[in-house]
Amino acid sequence: MAVEVSARRRRDIIDALRRGAVPSNGLDVLAVGLDRFTAALDEDLDRVAGAGSVFKAVRGEYGAGKTFFTRWLGERAKRRGFAVAEVQISELETPLHRMETVYRRLVEQLTTEQFPPSALRPVLDGWIFALEEDVLAAGTVDEQDAEGLDRAVGDLLERRLTGISRNTPGFAAALRGYRTAVADGDQITADGLAAWLGGQPHVAASARRAAGVKGDIDHFAALSFLQGLLTVLRDSGHPGLLLVLDEVETLQRVRSDARDKALNSLRQLIDDIYGGRFPGLFLLITGTPAFYDGQQGVQRLAPLAQRLATDFGPEWHWDNPRATQLRLPGFTEETLVQLGIRVRDIYGSARVSQVCDDAYLGKLARAVAGRLGGQVGVAPRVFLKKLVADVFDRVDQFDAWDPRRHYALTVRPDELTEVERNAASADDIQLPM
Predict the structure, then answer these.
(1) Model pTM?
(2) Of 20, 52, 238, 315, which one has the greatest count of Cβ atoms within 10 A?
(3) Cβ(403)–Cβ(355) under 8 Å?
(4) CA 267 to CA 246: how far, in whole Å?
(5) How far is Cα 98 from Cα 262, in angstroms, rounded to an integer?
(6) Which residues, other chains included, contact 235 with Cβ-Cβ below 8 Å and sequence gap of 6+?
(7) pLDDT-based confidence at residue 375 (cuts at 50, 70, 90)
(8) Smallest Cα–Cα separation from 315: which of 30, 40, 36, 32?
(9) How does DSSP assign 144-160, residue by residue?
């Protein structure tokens, strides 16, 4: 199957797989087995774009493709104009029970189709520009009347900030101060207020004084700041925000008091989403089955378990893609080969396509899975890394090199993650290919 993809995207995808990483873009051409989710998720994105809000929980073992799934959905969201942020939950750097830290990481990772992280400043500038365009479109002010335009923009800003001022007066005051600083060419103050709006601590007192705001945001203020950010995104042309909380299963390994606080924070956030507090928010969390079903995870807090409860039958083919939880069944040997075929097409080398036929891809997939204790679900990352870096690159560069005669698969412990090492056998043996 020929894959239509630009040379730059092709290069970025192959380079990421060569390093054993999930590509940052172009995931639509790599998606295998995700078609069954497309219609339901597009409905969810439409609902969020219409000022609704959605919560979803993705479950899957390691290697099932949770990170790939979230970034694939992120690409679909950005093509619709959404902003996207992926936050890694961790006990030390981003504890879930401290929403001020989660909000700060959200802003640091905020991205749009046009701007990489952090896209907060372009979003704020786009918001101000949109205000000016709306004033001019109304036809009540002449474009040459700078003073009148500034006054009219200020009046419109106040009307737009009515809701934000009621819930988060500090956020609204900082927005006013930011616009004034930008208009006056005061870059230092604008930088400081943008940092404060992004939840950064230790912002210069002079910048905070200019807007009449005090202190740093706390857990409760962070939730209100999220409301304000969603409003600014919508007014600047972004219909919604996809927020991914990744690796939530790490909560199982933290102290019991911190775990209970984090689970309760997640329950409260879900209730706020269902209650309509965050129009324009699509919240997606990821975790392993042990997190959702085990006593050290979701089941530890009965109200949260009730909200996430989803009935999964023995056949994943009949899972409901509109349910709260979405199950990723993981790779089989067949889907691993399908993925290899897509990567081969993206690689775009005639010799690679000739030498590394489907039969060879199946042989390598079985060998990698065998090296990882027969666990095909753990194999995708290693399989793709070996396929690109050890096989495709050599076939492409050396005319006489044949993987069936010259390549012996080796998997060293230092190139594996902890889960992959646990699956691998103790001896580092070579498997003839």
Answers:
(1) 0.87
(2) 238
(3) yes
(4) 16
(5) 8
(6) 127, 130, 131, 160
(7) low
(8) 36
(9) T-HHHHHHHHHHHHHHH
Nearest to 55 by CA among 314, 257, 253, 323: 323
Token pair recorded at residue 55 = 């919560």
Residue 7 one-letter amino acid: A
Q: List pLDDT tens digits, range 302-314.
A: 999 999 999 998 8
**CA nearest to 97, candidates 260, 282, 274:** 260
Q: What is d(CA 152, CA 142) in angstroms, rounded to the nearest whole number?
A: 11
Distance from C-alpha of 79 to C-alpha of 77, rounded to nearest angstrom: 5
Residue 223: helix, strand or coil by DSSP?
helix
Q: How far apart are CA 388 and CA 383, in angstroms?
A: 9
Residue spans of beta strands (DSSP E) within 205-316: 241-246, 281-287
- The region of weakest confidence among 57-66, 105-114, 266-275, 287-296 is 57-66
Helix (H) / strand (E) containing 215 = none
Gyration radius from the chain CA atoms? 25
Q: What is the pLDDT of residues 338-350, one digit of tens each?
A: 999 999 999 999 9
- Predicted confidence at residue 430, as pLDDT, reads 46
- Answer whether 298's CB lies under 8 Å from 270's CB: no
Measure the CA–CA gap between 256 and 278, rounded to whole angstroms: 29
The pLDDT tens digits for 166-203 are: 878 888 899 989 999 998 899 999 999 999 999 998 89
How far is Cα 433 from Cα 424, in angstroms, rounded to an integer? 18
Q: Is 78 in contact with 238 (CB distance < 8 Å)?
A: no
Residue tagged 């774009």 (tokens): 49
Structural tokens at position 85: 């942020």
Strand order from edge to edge, sheet including 325-327: 83-88, 241-246, 281-287, 53-59, 325-327
Task: Return d(Cα 319, Cα 313) in angstroms, integer.
Answer: 7
The candidate with the shortest Cα–Cα distance to 201, out of 216, 186, 183, 189, is 216
Residue 10 CB partners (closer than 8 Å, separation 6+): 26, 346, 347, 348
**Within 10 A of 272 (CB to CB), how many other CB atoms are there?**
18
Q: Residue 288: exposed, middle, or buried by beta-carbon count in 10 A (0-12, 13-18, 19+)?
A: buried
What is the structure's pLDDT at 64? 81
State the virtual CA torsion across 18, 22, 26, 28 in degrees, nearest 10. Answer: 120
All residues at 6 or more sequence positions from 160 whose CB lies less than 8 Å from its CB, including other chains: 131, 231, 235
